[in-house]
Amino acid sequence: MDAYPAIEAHGLIGDLQTAALVADDGTVDWFCAPRFDSPSLFASLLDRERGGRFRIAPDGGDHVRRQLYLPGTAVLITRFMSAEGVGEVIDFMPVRDGAATDRHLLVRVVRVVRGRMRFAVECRPAFDYGRQEHKAEITDDGVAFRGDSAALNLSIVRALGAHGDEGARLREDGRGGVRAVVTASAGEAGGVVLETAPDGPPARWTRDAVLAALEETRDFWRGWVGRSTYRGRWREMVERSAIALKLMTYAPTGALVAAPTAGLPEQVGGERNWDYRFTWVRDASFSVRALLGLGFVDEAEAFLTWLGHRVREAGERSSPLQIMYRIDGSGDLAEEELGHLDGYLGSRPVRVGNGAATQVQLDIYGEALDAVHLADAHGLGVPHDGWTHLRGIVDWLTGHWDQRDAGLWETRGGPEHFVYGRLISWVAFDRAIRLARSRGLPADLARWTAARDAVYEQVMERGWNAGRGAFVQHYGGRVLDASLLYMPTVGFIAPRDPRWVSTLRAMDEELVSDSLVYRYDPAASPDGLRGSEGTFSICTFWYVNALARSGRLDDARLTFEKMLTYSNHLGLYSEEIGPTGRQLGNFPQAFSHLALITAAVDLDRQLDRASSGRGPAAPR
C-alpha cells in the first residue's frame, strides 16, 4: 500500500449524505458517517497508522493499476492487471436521496475478468478520528466492529466460486482489524458490504442482491446526469464536474459542502490544513449559476430553500449571515486540532471545525443575491416571506458595507478594505434593485440605489492604483488579487474598459504561470499564515472567463484546454495545483468544479457568438 498516495490519486463515491475517497491502490482512506461532517471511520490519508483503512487489492505480485468511472455514473472501478490475470474492485454507495439516515452502505464488488487473481481484503476502522477504541467480533457472515459511539458491520458476499468459501475466512489482525485472502478465476465475482449504524449482526448478502444494488445505483446516476441540457464542446468534463457537485450535496437539506475532506494541505508540511466539510454561502451560491447553466433546476431550488432558512434566521436575530454553516444549517463550527494525527505527509496541525465561520466577509450577500436574481430569471420566483427577509439583509448591508472585513480568502492577518468585498456588495444592491423593479416588489429603492452608486464610486477611486495601472486587493495597497477577475463577469466594469484591460495585463504578468493563476502573492500580502501555496483552480477558470469577455478568445480556449490537463485521471480537481503539477488542498473541491462548469458554458457562448459574427456575449 502507498503510505500516502497522492491527493489526486483518488476517486470519490457517495450516496448524497456522505462520501468516501478510494485511492487507486484499492484503499478507502477517508470516510465519515453518517454525514459529511461526522467523525471519520477511515482516515489513513491523514495518519497511516492511527487513521484506519479499508483495502482490497492483489495479495502480492507485480501489477499495474488503473481507475475509471463507469461512464455517466459515480460508480468507481479500480482495475489491477498482471501477467496472471486482470481483476477489478467496483466501489459504490447506494443512493440515499431522501430523509437523513445513520445507515449507509459502502459496497465493494470484486471480480476477475481474465486469468486468476489472489485478493487481500483488509478492514481496520478507527472511530472518531482514531480517538476511540473498538472491538471486532467475527461471525459466520462477516465482522461486527463496535465502539462506544459508533458501529460498523462488514458482510462477506460468499460467491467467488470454487476458491471463494475457504479463502474468504476473516481473521483478526491483532490491531482491531480483520484480514481475508481470496483467490478467484475469470468470471467469478463477489464482494463485501460495509454498513454503518447497523441494528444487528452482519447481514447475509447474496451476489444477486449486490449486483442488483449496483445496477440500481448505475441507473440513478445515468438518469440524473441525463437531465443535463449542456451540449457544448466539453461535455465529458462538464458532466463529470456536475456529478462531483452532486456527490458533495447533502440531499436532506440541499446544502453543498466545499469539499468532503478535512486537513489536506495547501502546502505539504505546512499549516494551511482546513476542514472544508461545511456549506459556505459563497460557494453554494456560485453553484446555483453552475447548476442552472446545466438545467438542474431542482438542485438549485433546494439550495435556495436552505439559504432562505439561513436568511430568515439571521433576520429574526437581527444579525448578519455567517459565512458558512453545517449542512443541517446549524452554526457551531468550533475549530479544534487533532494533535494525535500526523497529518498528510506530516502536514500538521490537522483541524476539524472551522474558526473562520465567525469572520465578517461582506461579499457573501452579493453572491447570495446574485443567485436569487439568476434563479428568478429561470422561473424560480422569490416568495413573499423570502423577499421580506432578503430585503432586511439588503437594508442591513446599506449600513455596514463600508467597513473592513476578512476578505474572500479568509486571511488571518487582520481585516482590510478588500476590493472584492466592495465589488460584490455592489452586486448585492444591483441585483436587489433589479428584482424589486422587475417584480414590483416593495423596497427602499432610493436608499439601495444611493448605496450601490456609493460603492461603485469608492471602488473606482480607492480600489484603483494608478501607479500599478490596476485594481488591487485592498484600499491603499499594491497587491494584485485574482478574485477581481470576477469584475467583468458580474457587470461591474466593461470588459474593454481601459482600466480593466490594464488590470488584466498586470495579472497576466504577475499572477499567471503557464495559464495557471495564483490568487495573490503571499510574500507581498501577509495573510497571517506561514508558508506558500499553489495556484488556485477557481482563479484559473475565472481567468478563462475574463479572457473570453475581453475578446481574447484564442487565449481563453488555450488556457481552458491546458487547465483540463491538470485534472486527475478521473476528471477531478482539488483546490490548488502545486508547482510540479500535483494537486493540493481538500479534494475534490466544489469551488473548482462549479467554476469549470461556468467557464465551459460561458466560453461556449462566446465562441458560438464569435463564429456567427455577433461579437462578445453580455454578462449574465
UniProtKB/TrEMBL annotation:
Highest classification ranks of the organism: Bacteria, Bacillati, Actinomycetota, Actinomycetes, Streptosporangiales
Molecular function in Gene Ontology: hydrolase activity
Keyword vocabulary terms for this entry: Hydrolase
Organism: Actinomadura fibrosa
Domain of life: Bacteria
Name of the protein in its database record: Glycoside hydrolase family 15 protein
Domain (Trehalase-like N-terminal) ranges: 5-154
Keyword Hydrolase: yes
Database matches in Gene3D superfamilies: 1.50.10.10
Pfam families linked: Glyco_hydro_15, TREH_N
Domain GH15-like residue range list: 235-600
Keyword 4Fe-4S: no
